[in-house]
Amino acid sequence: MNDEPRSRWTGPGRSPGFLLWRVTLAWQRAMRAALAPHDLTHVQFVLLASAWWLGDHEEPPTQQRLAEQAGADTMMTSQVVRKLADRGLVNRSPDPHDARALRIVVTPEGREVLAAALRDVEQADTEYFAAVDDGFVDGLSRLLR
């Protein structure tokens, strides 16, 4: 039996997983840079933006619904939402239908911070992904189904 490592790819630059890893790291650096002036981590931004979107298009989300929308762990979501609440960017209030659940509402200050951060994140996205077309986004979406 041969225990030598073998790859079906001709090199790391041909492995989709390796390329995705490298692209993800580079994109995360771009996101950190875009969010630094707003004193937000990427996770905080995603949860704040998701809470805003759900609140404006559906209803103020519970922490569970917010975690589902963001694809995040519920315990981590709870911790991050607590930090956002401590900063006055969101309010957590009891759900009238479920005493165990909390509804998350973006405050006026949170909307202001989000509006500025969203502009910077979308600009960073536009610049970062300028080399790819809409088919790339469609392909990524198919991977999540």
Automatic annotation (TrEMBL):
<protein>
    <submittedName>
        <fullName>DNA-binding MarR family transcriptional regulator</fullName>
    </submittedName>
</protein>
<dbReference type="GO" id="GO:0003677">
    <property type="term" value="F:DNA binding"/>
</dbReference>
<dbReference type="Pfam" id="PF01047">
    <property type="entry name" value="MarR"/>
</dbReference>
<keyword id="KW-0804">Transcription</keyword>
<keyword id="KW-0238">DNA-binding</keyword>
<dbReference type="InterPro" id="IPR036390">
    <property type="entry name" value="WH_DNA-bd_sf"/>
</dbReference>
<keyword id="KW-0805">Transcription regulation</keyword>
<dbReference type="GO" id="GO:0006950">
    <property type="term" value="P:response to stress"/>
</dbReference>
<dbReference type="InterPro" id="IPR000835">
    <property type="entry name" value="HTH_MarR-typ"/>
</dbReference>
<dbReference type="InterPro" id="IPR036388">
    <property type="entry name" value="WH-like_DNA-bd_sf"/>
</dbReference>
<feature type="domain" description="HTH marR-type">
    <location>
        <begin position="1"/>
        <end position="145"/>
    </location>
</feature>
<dbReference type="InterPro" id="IPR039422">
    <property type="entry name" value="MarR/SlyA-like"/>
</dbReference>
<dbReference type="GO" id="GO:0003700">
    <property type="term" value="F:DNA-binding transcription factor activity"/>
</dbReference>
